[in-house]
Q: What sequence folds into this?
């Protein structure tokens, strides 16, 4: 083997070496330790005791744990499709050849790189039920209408938002939905991946479709979507993982970071990782928290596996 | 080509190695021969940090053989536990009453009784008895009288609930200002007169903010725990009545804001903006309120429903149990200096965020009693009716975060909440936590 070929073979390994070193030094050890801890009772201050699978059985009998799992699943079911559809729509808009498109792309990507805590604090102010700009707009643009319709002696109050702006983050029936809305705000990272996918679709596919008389909608359904399936699949997998690991949004919006009650109103924002954090660092139940981490890992693994299994039927790589 | 790739890899390694070296050598290295004492505190405000630095400087001038290394961290509590788990807990640290039982039972902190006995220059008599008692702990099942319980932290300061009020709003509404003999009824009547609405019926100024739920229950004759903290007894007619009274203030009389009206702001912010006439709050708020220029504020005793009960929080300095004898000696000298008259207590009074635990200093006109507020003496007199609302149990954090705070929040958030049913759930869940507490050895 020539010297040049030898180095060619090894240079790839050298490039990933820092990550590999990092993984073995900082990730593998804690990973194995957490697996061991999940089989122990450990409060960080005294010696751990082996309890077998007791932590796991305790968790599945704990209503708070099951509640947090349910809230997280609900959040994922709402946030994943909405974020994916939103980012695809914006990516399509930003894939146009119009003047100043670079500026538009920057603007839409900007929320993804701004500080999360600052943005969430700002949103909390915007969504203030009393005197907040969102409800103010609702009040002036939408809510007066029932007064007009009341001329016909119809009570419109059964329709949400027809009489009063909601308590976006203070009402247990609205808090999670508000968080879903805010997750759409950070669609920039998904959008940039879709944009790359869209730009990878050869123009001649569209030209051929046009020759066959396809309109915009037909081109989207028969060219764009099939060609974009690997990108959609990637975003679906990453978004699913991300929503199950959501922490900072729920933690800040619930007010827990400012001394508020854990999980916010009616524990509506008690997402899985928020409960995990409290279990580990507030209640000092490291064994239980580690078991939660492993359960989350297996849930994500199962969902990713399911995605891959179903993905074989609708993702086209050619 | 290969050479180019190799140089990129080499550059990457050079950067990583340089960073590692920079981090390694940026550690504080103690001057040789000195005993290092690490000190972890919650204080992160510039003014507070400056005071800690000043105490450190004065201490090191008097104790040239010791090098104090302060660490400022708002998440100090989490840091203590994580460092204790890894065997690197700070030598000395700021603690509040809530954490003492767990730390004492688990042997994380050093009992200070023997040190007070050994060191004739240290004494507890200059401090308020109640504050000292709050830093004592023995497992409740042992039924040790409070004064005989071990002390786990050097007394530093305390804060109680008092009633902050906006004098200008009182004068404008023609309402007499609160006095020491004010009753709950007086407060509610004043709150009604001080609540202002616009032409659409929307509240523009609230009479008051809801007081602490636990102490309101206690002020009505109810209680959360039995005497030895072996059982939760919160579901009583007195508790139901107290919570319903708080709901009445919020939903019926509408003199106190509901959660929707507070979202995105805070009680302190509302008070500072002149949107709140009365605020049951803690002493530390005075630091912020002293900067108000738009109106004059004052403080009064917080009236209870049938008797006055104020919430008490106490802070002190503890030292790690896992120190060498030489380090323990140095750590003791540091916490003694920090908390003693003539030492740190001389410096800390410059920022009145808590009342000093030293009796003479707390009453000194040039120190804590210096206005504003005019009626600052209630910061100290309220100590008499104050109680610690956090139970002396090992799993206090779980009780507070998983039960008390979210459940009270739920009860008071909804007008139609079924208080008695919810209190029963509260009671059952709390009893489940109490069942996990250390038991007498059989």
A:
């Amino acid at each position: 083997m020539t010297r040049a070929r030898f180095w060619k073979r090894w240079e790839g390994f050298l490039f990933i070496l820092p990550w590999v070193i990092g993984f073995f030094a900082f990730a593998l050890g804690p990973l194995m330790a957490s697996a061991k801890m999940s089989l122990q009772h450990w409060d960080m201050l005294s010696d751990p005791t082996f309890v077998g699978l007791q932590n796991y059985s305790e968790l599945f009998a704990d209503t708070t744990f099951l509640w947090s799992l349910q809230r997280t699943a609900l959040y994922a079911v709402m946030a994943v499709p909405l974020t994916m559809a939103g980012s695809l729509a914006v990516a399509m808009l930003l894939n146009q050849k119009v003047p100043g498109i670079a500026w538009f792309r920057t603007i839409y990507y900007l929320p993804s790189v701004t500080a999360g805590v600052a943005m969430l604090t700002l949103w909390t102010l915007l969504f203030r039920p009393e005197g907040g700009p969102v409800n103010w707009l609702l009040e002036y643009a939408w809510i007066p209408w029932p007064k007009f319709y009341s001329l016909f002696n119809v009570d419109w109050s059964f329709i949400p938002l027809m009489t009063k702006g909601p308590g976006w983050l203070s009402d247990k029936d609205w808090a999670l939905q508000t968080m879903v809305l805010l997750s759409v705000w950070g669609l920039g990272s998904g959008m940039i991946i879709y944009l790359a996918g869209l730009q990878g679709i050869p123009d001649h596919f569209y030209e051929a479709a046009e020759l066959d008389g396809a309109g915009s909608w037909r081109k989207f359904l028969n060219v764009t979507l099939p060609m974009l399936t690997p990108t959609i699949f990637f975003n679906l997998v990453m978004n699913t993982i991300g929503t199950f690991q959501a922490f900072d949004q729920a933690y800040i919006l619930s007010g827990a970071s400012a001394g508020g009650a854990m999980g916010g109103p009616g524990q509506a924002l008690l997402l899985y990782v928020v409960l995990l954090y409290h279990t580990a660092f507030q209640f000092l139940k490291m064994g239980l928290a580690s078991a939660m981490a492993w359960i989350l890992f297996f849930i994500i693994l199962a969902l990713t596996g399911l995605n891959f299994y179903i993905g074989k039927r609708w993702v086209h790589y050619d | 080509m290969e050479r180019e790739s190799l140089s990129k890899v080499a550059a990457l390694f050079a950067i990583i190695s340089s960073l590692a070296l920079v981090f390694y050598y940026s550690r504080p290295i103690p001057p040789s021969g000195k005993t290092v004492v690490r000190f972890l505190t919650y204080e992160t405000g510039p003014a507070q940090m400056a005071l800690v630095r000043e105490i450190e400087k004065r201490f090191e001038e008097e104790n040239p053989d010791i090098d104090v290394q302060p660490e400022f961290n708002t998440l100090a509590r989490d840091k203590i536990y994580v460092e204790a788990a890894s065997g690197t807990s700070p030598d000395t640290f700021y603690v509040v009453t809530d954490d003492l039982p767990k730390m004492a039972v688990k042997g994380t902190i050093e009992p200070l009784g023997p040190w007070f006995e050994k060191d004739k220059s240290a004494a507890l008599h200059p401090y308020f008895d109640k504050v000292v008692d709050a830093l004592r702990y023995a497992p409740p099942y042992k039924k040790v009288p409070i004064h005989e319980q071990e002390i786990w932290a050097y007394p530093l300061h305390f804060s109680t609930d008092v009633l902050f009020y906006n004098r200008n709003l009182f004068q404008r509404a023609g309402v007499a200002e609160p006095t020491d003999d004010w009753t709950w009824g007086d407060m509610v009547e004043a709150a009604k007169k001080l609540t202002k609405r616009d032409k659409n019926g929307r509240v523009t100024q609230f009479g008051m903010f809801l007081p602490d739920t636990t102490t309101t229950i206690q002020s009505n004759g109810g209680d959360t725990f039995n005497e030895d903290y072996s059982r939760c007894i919160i579901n009583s007619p007195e508790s139901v009545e107290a919570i319903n009274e708080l709901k009445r203030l919020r939903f019926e009389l509408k003199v106190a804001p509901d959660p929707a009206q507070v979202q995105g702001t805070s009680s302190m912010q509302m008070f500072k903006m002149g949107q709140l006439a009365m605020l049951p709050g803690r002493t530390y708020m005075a630091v912020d309120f002293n900067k108000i220029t738009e109106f004059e504020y004052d403080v009064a005793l917080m009236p209870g429903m049938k008797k006055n009960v104020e919430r008490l929080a106490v802070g002190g300095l503890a030292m790690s149990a896992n120190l060498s004898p030489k380090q323990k000696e140095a750590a003791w000298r540091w916490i003694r200096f920090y908390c003693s008259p003539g030492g740190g207590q001389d410096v800390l009074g410059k920022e009145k965020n808590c009342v000093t635990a030293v009796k003479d200093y707390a009453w000194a006109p040039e120190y804590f009693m210096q206005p504003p507020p005019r009626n600052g003496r209630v910061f100290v007199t309220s100590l008499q009716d104050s109680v610690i609302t956090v139970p002396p149990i090992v799993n206090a954090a779980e009780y507070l975060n998983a039960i008390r705070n979210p459940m009270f929040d739920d009860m008071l958030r909804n007008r139609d909440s079924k208080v008695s049913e919810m209190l029963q759930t509260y009671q059952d869940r709390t009893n489940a936590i109490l069942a996990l507490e250390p038991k007498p050895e059989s």
Summary: Residues 204 and 210 of chain A are 10 Å apart (CA to CA). The radius of gyration of chain A is 25 Å. The mean pLDDT of chain A is 89.
